[in-house]
Amino acid sequence: MTKTTNQFSSKKIITFLLLTFAIIAVGCDRNKSKQVTIEKSVIPDFKLIKDVVYGHEFGMAMTFDIYIPSKPNGAGVILTNSGGWESPYDTFKIQDNGTYRFATDEEMTKSKTYHILSPKKLVLNGYTVFEVRHGSRRKFEMSEIVSHVRRAVRFIKHNSSDYGVDKTRLGLWGGSASGHLSLLIGLSPEVPLFDAKLDWEKNHADVAAIAVFAAPSDLGKMVLDDQKTWGKADFLKLSTEQYQEFSPVNYASKNDPPTLIMHGDIDTTVPFIQGELMYSKLQEAGVRSNFIEFEKTNHSPTLKNASKGVDEALAWFDTYLSK
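^ that's the sequence the OP posted. Answer follows.
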């Protein structure tokens, strides 16, 4: 009887230990799920870090993804994923059987993705790319959207060494709405966050270079004066003062980073003059800058011109983000 009891007790102990190990294992898995996960892409030696949290709004996580090249050059490019100041989730990458790859031209065309902003060429040339998502305009005001992106830039700078990136070799890259945000943050890096609580949130969001395509630069002129495109469909709903506050042309100064402006000459969404105005202000301020006119190009460039635009941005970053 004693032997049976001892066997039973032994079984109970073994069962208890197995359950304990199982609970610990589950707990470890849960802890891992809270950490940044690195996933192998179908592109050789390309890694993706998804959903890095840089802040919270209304209980929602504000996140960015990191594309890590096989041979990093130590420089990073911050790309804000924004179209019409709406920030979609996965537009540049596709998940296949648990792994990620860059979306093809055809897939981006089908999803109406802005081809020129695909991080593929930058990554394949050694740049670590940070794809930042902000709160979309249907929920957030422009001041909040700008605050989100500025916070992300500061977060990335503060943690850059964790990603193998030199914080003094960071650039901003964007087109259309994301170009507007890139200019606004890059040309006014010292503006404090409205809700800064942590030390890193109070630091400057300065970068070493900026490159943009078809970016709004003077919202007041574009929306209030050039009413053919925007006047009756003003979804930004800003006051006259706010249009000036959120216009990059008003922040050009001699200490701004080297800035590349590209614009299509027949752009019917963001008029060509927006690029000219920004370039003119940068030149007046003595900022190292260049303006490239894309002939016979509307707001969404052809695949050929999109490729050319990325090449120009890449060359700009090669010049100003090198060691």
